[in-house]
Amino acid sequence: MVEALVRTSRTTLDKGVVMGFGVGIVLLVIGLILVTGAIDLPASVDDVVATGTVGWILILAGVLGIVLGLIATRSRSHTTVVEERRDV
Predict the structure, then answer these.
(1) What pLDDT, in 10s, does the model give residues 23-53?
(2) Eight-class DSSP state of 78
(3) Under a CB-based contact definition with an 8 Å cutoff, are residues 17 and 77 in contact?
(4) At 79, is the secondary structure helix, strand, or coil?
(5) Which residues of 1-88 form beta strands (DSSP E)?
(6) H or E stretch at 27
(7) Beta pairing partners, 6
(8) Angle formed by the axes of helices 51-77 and 15-36, to 10°?
(9) Rounded to whole angstroms, how far apart are CA atoms 69 and 37?
(10) Entry pTM
(11) What average pLDDT does the structure give for the chain?
């Protein structure tokens, strides 16, 4: 019986983490646009939706997404994968 241990370290980003960064940034930008009033929304939208409140919610969600993406990236970069092969 021969045993071989192969240790590898994953330093590349997974697509899910990159997507998390992208979504976080998009939410942050849309929230900032809504809070600052950089674009004029139609009066029918302003009457129904409090754009300032929605903007702050999107900013918080974007920051949270970016922070969680950074935490996930850090924990994945320090992961060691151990592969064990046995020939019988």
Answers:
(1) 999 999 999 999 999 988 888 988 899 999 9
(2) T
(3) no
(4) coil
(5) 2-9, 80-87
(6) helix 15-36
(7) 83
(8) 160
(9) 28
(10) 0.66
(11) 79
